[in-house]
Automatic annotation (TrEMBL):
It is a multi-pass membrane protein. It comes from the Bacteria. It is found in: Membrane. InterPro entries: UbiA_prenyltransferase (IPR000537), UbiA_sf (IPR044878). Keywords: Membrane, Transmembrane, Transmembrane helix. The keyword Transmembrane helix applies. This is Membrane protein. Signal peptide: none annotated.
Amino acid sequence: MTVTRATAPPPETAARPGRGTVVALLAACHPLPAAAVTLFTAVLAVAVGRGAAGCAVSAGAVALGQLSVGWCNDRADLRRDRITGRPDKPLAAGTVAPATVSVAAIAALALCVPLSLASGWLAGTVHLCAVAAAWAYNLWLKSTPASWLPYALAFGLLPAFVTLGLPGRPWPPLWLGVAAALLGAGAHFANVLPDIAGDLATGVTGLPQRLGVRRSAALAALLVLGSAAALVVGPAGPTTASGWGLLALTATVLLATGRGRGRVPFLGTLAVAAADVTLLLARGAGTA
């Protein structure tokens, strides 16, 4: 795959203020994964019995955190996205100004702090650690062999953020944190698959880029399958029929999407995550 240098507008004329700025900002925040993570949080909050207010507060905090992370990511990748020619990226396409995205990222991060702490100081601190891990990925760890670690840490902490907001501040069961961490790490490998060639051309050498497409795709599938397995066999008692069905569905989806091109493997990961949260909701408060 040959990477060509795109002709990008100069920074001072790249953006057109007032023309679809809100739409461009929404496109720059990585809306699909941001919505998926926020929905996962809301479903988990319902499952553990946070109540309407608790669900709204926890989902809102995560939504703001995701917005800040997405905007930070696109702002940090602006130079690389222009080099590789990414018309799907509003910043690289010149439909929104870099300063606008920077301000939006910082504002979302600032609003995320009090909303996270509204669930309690311990729960809020846990969530802010997850957001800090994601920012560390954008600004530093993305180009290191530890690129998977922020994903595993941030996803693994999400269940704790939700359950620590309950009376008595209980920690979630270990199997739930492990399942979330494995899903996050798998999502990292699946998400970067279509960008590996361009990443290498612009100096991004995280673990997936070092392993290559084939090995990263296989590892992504194994991690996501491990996440589903932890979710199914982790809870006490015999494995239910719905649990075995989830494992079978996971394996089928991964086989069907693992060799796909573009964003297909990542969409397969999102489909598995949707099945996971459905099972969590069906189990209800037993997850806490």
